[in-house]
């Protein structure tokens, strides 16, 4: 059989792999990309895309309830919503594949394995390349207790055809809070179980407390310092036995963090080193084998397993592999969001970090609730904290809690990254009144 030769092979058709493949092909490299499951990977099929479609419906429901002053609020029609969501997901997955093809990238559908550091097999075919990038992503953490086969993962919730009436969520991290907000607003009974006392580690305690209180008022039950011991299935119901309680539910979903997809790649055949956390890479995203690289959730890079990082790394690598001189990857300031209701978002130095180094940073806390954008949305708890470097008096971080916290944080991230002075901001001409023009009053 003839061997297909490429400049670059990318293993994994998620957002990380897509970034590398498209960028490298734009420089004229001959590129192949291999995907074993769905084009677009986790983000498109089981992550932020379906999540944000469901969230839009949940937010519309909440806004109807608070803003329309009607006696009754219509129920969310989950089946129709699910069909609409699946349509968007499927269209997006197809767009990923056709975009590769229209950029001259050869697409393969199947499981890729390394034969050596220049060769990969897929569907019995051998492909060879000068450089190979692993962008194989991650899978939900495996659980080992009696009845763990009854557990479903967050991706199943975001792609569910029907809304279960009773839901238990294991974990109180970013994904769990999005799930809880949507399920609660759509009418499910939700219990959240967290094995220790800390929800949304890394986010401002005060804002996390506001979010938990809000969800509690809406009927979500929280159990902290509680772990699942066993699950039994009896008469179409699940009995979840924990250290502290026994809960009867329809479904139990997990959002406990994710583990790199490394088994099955035969990395040792290519001489690529890895640990249980993922593929080890240096600041050039290069593995222990000099012509093999890794990006996104499968790589140990010291940044969170999030799509914005996978995309950024993919674009960096596609660029650096196409140039004679490569520079180490340099991350801009961290920017993340929790898509709960209301949302939480942070950029740059966090409030927690600022409190730990109070000699260096000052935290300026403000309510946003009296601003028109928040008032008209009944966003009564909307708040912002700016982190200011005491010496330079510049804003180096921000954390926000509101229904539009991610937008505000992105505007602030632009101002921070671009080092925009108050004067320059006031010279900018923007549509009024909007979240962007609120910045005139916020920026210091
Ligand atoms: C429920 C959920 C919600 C999320 N929400 C957000 C969010 O709002 N914002 C955000 O920034 N991040 C979010 N994330 C994280 C984000 O989805 C991931 O960080 C991102 O998908 C990582 O991209 P990736 O390309 O590294 O991996 P993936 O998207 O997982 O893609 C890897 C691809 O490689 C394929 N593959 C693996 N092994 C092989 C092989 N041997 N051969 C061929 N193909 C292979 C897989 O099938 C997969 O399609 C969320 C994650 C989840 C689970
Ligand atoms: N600020 C950020 O950028 C940020 C924050 C959190 C997570 N992330 C990334 O997003 C990825 C996926 O998010 P996620 O929500 O699945 O993970 P997560 O890490 O945000 O949350 C998992 C939560 O589950 C808890 N937990 C772990 N084992 C448990 C158990 N047996 N029972 C109950 N609770 C348990 C953890 O303490 C944690 O609070 C993470 O892998 C991480 O890399 C990024």
Automatic annotation (TrEMBL):
Its EC number is 1.-.-.-. Its cofactor is FAD. It comes from Companilactobacillus huachuanensis. This is Dihydrolipoyl dehydrogenase family protein. Pfam families: Pyr_redox_2, Pyr_redox_dim. One of its GO terms (molecular function) is oxidoreductase activity. InterPro entries: Class-I_Pyr_Nuc-Dis_Oxidored, FAD/NAD-bd_sf, FAD/NAD-binding_dom, FAD/NAD-linked_Rdtase_dimer_sf, Pyr_nuc-diS_OxRdtase, Pyr_nucl-diS_OxRdtase_dimer. Belongs to the class-I pyridine nucleotide-disulfide oxidoreductase family. Residues 6-314 form the FAD/NAD(P)-binding domain. Residues 336-436 form the Pyridine nucleotide-disulphide oxidoreductase dimerisation domain.
